[in-house]
Amino acid sequence: MTIAPRGGHRLTLAVLVAATFGYQALESMLAPALPLIRQVVGASTPVIAWVLTSVLLAGAVSTPVVSRLADTKDKRGVLLGVLLVVCAGTLVSALATSVVGLLVGQLLQGVGLGLVPLSVGIIRDTQPLERMRWANGLIIGIAALSTAVGLVSAGLIVGRMPYTWLFWFPFGVLAATVVCAWFVVPPCPPRVAGRVDWPGGVLLALGLAMMLIAITQTTAWGWLSGGVLGLVTVSVLLMAAFVTVELRTAEPLVDLRQLRAPAVLLVCAVWFVGGFGGFVFLLLPLVVHAPVSAGHGLADSVSLSGLYLVPLGLVGALSAPLTGPFERRIGTRVVMVMGTG
C-alpha cells in the first residue's frame, strides 16, 4: 500500500471523486441537449445518436486497455494520461463546428469510462484497508449523483448560453483535476509485469464499429440491404478473430476464459442485457422535445428533458453506497436479484 506523501489518502480520494464527478457530469449533460445539438449541427437522428454511441464504443475498447495499463504501469501516470485525453476530447467537442468534429471529441472523451475501474485500483493502493469498501462505494455513488447533477445543469446552461458551454464547464473542472492529481496522487507502482494486447484492442474496436455502423445505416439502407449485411458479416468475422486472438494470447486484453465460471458469465449477461436500458438517455429527450403534432412528442424544453431523467441519477446515488452493506447482510445473489428486479 502507498499512502500519498504530498496530501494523504484523503486528498487522493478527493481527486478521484472530482475526476469521476467532472467526467460523469460531462457525459450526462449531453443527453437532454441532444435535440438542440442536432438542430445546430444539422444532423439526422441516427447520426446524432453517435454522440452517445461513440463514447460507449471508445469506452468498450479503452476500459480494458486502461485496466491493463493500470496493472502493468504506474497508476498515477495512467490516471494523468486518461484525464489529459478526456480534456483534449472535451476541448475538441467545445470547438467543433460540425458533427464530425463533435464525434471526434466524443471518441476521445470515451477513454474516460475507464476512470472508475482505474480509481478502484488507486483506492486499493492508497487507502487504509478499513476505508477501501467505503471509498469504492463513494466513487460509484458520486458517479450516479453527478449524472443527476449533469442532467439538471444541462437545461440551465443551454437555456442561457450556447450548448458548447456543456463542454467548457466540465473542461475547467477536469483541467483543475489534472493539476491536483499531479501534486496529490502518489506513485502507484505495478504489482505485475506484462504488456497490453494491442492486436486484440484493434480487432475489438473494428468489430464493434462495423456492427454499430450497420445498425445506424438500417434506416437509410434497409435491414436486408447489401451494405448492412456486408458490414454485419465483416463485424462477425472481426469479432471471431478477436475471440481467437484472446484465447491464444498469454496476456489477453479480455480474458474470455473467465466466462467459463458461471458467476462471471451471469454477471456479464446481466450487464449486457441491462445495458440496453441506456437507450432511454437518447430516446427520452427526443420524445420530450418533439412537437405534439409528431404523435409521440411532449413539446417540452431541454430543462424538462433533464428533469425527467434525474430520478435515474438520484436512485443510483442513493443505492450505490448501500450495495456493500446489503451484500454483507443478505448476500450477493439476493442483491443481484433486487437490482435487476
Walk me through what this model shows.
With 341 residues, this protein is an all-alpha fold. It has helices at residues 8-41, 45-48, 50-72, 75-95, 99-109, 115-126, 132-158, 165-184, 198-221, 226-248, 262-275, 280-289, 302-319, 323-330, 332-340. The protein is globular. The two termini are 38 Å apart.
Intertermini distance:
38 Å
Order of helices and strands: HHHHHHHHHHHHHHH
Care to count the β-strands?
A: 0
Low-pLDDT regions: 1-7
Radius of gyration: 21 Å
Number of helices: 15
What percentage of amino acids are in beta strands?
Answer: under 5%
User: Major sheet: size, sense and barrel closure?
Assistant: none
Globally, the shape reads globular
Going by helix content, strand content and strand pairing, the class is: mainly alpha
- The mean pLDDT is 84
- Helical percentage: over 70%
Brief overview, please?
The protein is mainly alpha-helical.
Furnish the topology, listing elements before pairings:
Blueprint: H1 8-41, H2 45-48, H3 50-72, H4 75-95, H5 99-109, H6 115-126, H7 132-158, H8 165-184, H9 198-221, H10 226-248, H11 262-275, H12 280-289, H13 302-319, H14 323-330, H15 332-340
Helix pairs in contact: 1-6, 1-7, 1-8, 1-12, 1-13, 3-5, 3-6, 3-9, 4-5, 4-6, 4-8, 6-7, 7-13, 9-10, 12-13, 14-15
